[in-house]
Design a protein that fits this description.
CATH architecture: 7 Propeller
Radius of gyration: 18 Å
Low-confidence stretches: 3-26
Strand content: over 45%
CATH topology: Methylamine Dehydrogenase, Chain H
Number of strands: 30
CATH class: Mainly Beta
Helix content: under 10%
Order of helices and strands: EEEEEEEEEEEEEEEEEEEEEEEEEEEEEE
Distance between the termini: 31 Å
Shape: globular
Mean pLDDT: 91
CATH superfamily: YVTN repeat-like/Quinoprotein amine dehydrogenase
């Protein structure tokens, strides 16, 4: 989690029009009118997509709320109050039990009814919670401790902690991959690493060093090719072979990237930098390459991809309000080769 307060001084409230990259023509992202998300003083943290319900879920951290947006209509459906001091960081979807989970700074995970979009429970935690990942195969939510030394496993049905997993410190983004049946956890230390957690016994089964990526925050997985992407605040993206834990290649992107998102249909990794640049990385048979660099509002550091439409959703703050905005490729790109 990388907090941003009072940003959005450039390219802020108005629609961005056609965002022109520095790469080849045909890679433009066209911006729809921004969706205002009212706030008292705002910044966003992690975002995710509920693909089946066609919803964008954005943690509106400084407003202690979860913003829920209809992706097809481009309208704000609900702002769910998470409680004073909650903030709001990681967001995860539990389809089986009909829940949205939000990590909270006030030592809670917030349980929200997915159908009615209302808060239904607080899960008391031993510490503040940052990122979340949900494993539907064993109905388990994984919640990492903000700047701490633990990852907690929570039963999605009972909302009870079932395991505590020790980590070296400063866990950042976390993601579950159904193909490898592993949970991948970034560790923001020097040297930075990705931990591999086995859901079967809820223990760390491997540690992968990811240098030259340093202070890793964003993480994404391509289940089809078996690659893990981990990006450092220093602007280095490590592409890792999940079978061996070795680095396939490194790609230099913009610095100060927080959350990243992978589009499995186009094999693209989107890396938003708080400096006002969106680095678009194309996965290839041999590894990955920087495709383009696109101007976005300063302070944008989290995003999500709609796998159905390939639209990229960003969130950012401006002097008058906060916004989420849909960026749609001008031409739906053809996917890259499916294997390394």
């Amino acid at each position: 989690m990388m907090k941003q307060i009072g940003f959005g001084l450039a390219l802020a409230a108005a629609a961005l029009g056609s965002l022109l990259p520095s790469g080849a023509s045909g890679d433009e992202l066209n911006a729809s009118p921004p969706v205002a998300v009212p706030r008292s003083a705002g910044y966003f943290d992690y975002m995710t997509v509920d693909a089946k319900m066609r919803r964008l879920l954005a943690a509106h951290s400084a407003n202690d709320s979860l913003a829920i947006v209809d992706m097809d209509l481009g309208t704000l459906l609900k702002q769910v109050d998470l409680g004073d001091g909650a903030g709001g960081a990681g967001v995860a979807v539990d389809e089986r039990d009909g829940k949205y989970f939000v990590g909270a700074a006030n030592n809670h995970v917030v349980d929200i009814n997915r159908k009615y979009m209302v808060l239904q429970a607080y899960i008391t935690m031993p510490g503040p919670v940052d990122a979340l990942a949900f494993d539907p195969s064993n109905d388990t939510l994984y919640a990492d401790e903000d700047n701490g030394t633990h990852v907690w496993a929570i039963n999605g049905h009972s909302d009870k902690i079932v395991a505590t997993i020790d980590v070296p410190g400063k866990p950042e983004y976390i993601q579950y991959d159904p193909v490898t049946d592993r949970v991948y956890q970034n560790i923001d230390l020097s040297p930075s690493s990705v931990l591999v957690i086995g859901p079967g016994n809820n223990s760390v089964v491997a540690t992968w060093l990811v240098a030259p990526a340093d202070k890793v925050h964003g993480l994404a997985v391509d289940s089809a090719t078996g690659r893990v992407f981990s990006v450092g605040l220093n602007g280095e993206l490590a592409v890792i072979d999940a079978k061996t834990g070795t680095i396939v290649t490194e790609v230099t992107v913009a610095p100060r990237v927080d959350q990243i998102a992978f589009d499995p249909g186009t094999k693209r990794v989107y890396c938003p930098s708080a400096t006002g640049v969106l680095s678009v990385v194309q996965e290839t048979a041999d590894g990955a390459t920087l495709l383009s660099s696109i101007s976005i509002p300063r302070g944008t550091h989290t995003l999500a991809v709609d796998p159905k439409t390939h639209a990229v959703w960003i969130s950012y703050g401006a002097p008058d309000s906060d916004y989420v905005e849909k960026l749609t490729p001008s031409v739906t790109p053809s996917p890259a080769p499916s294997g390394p």
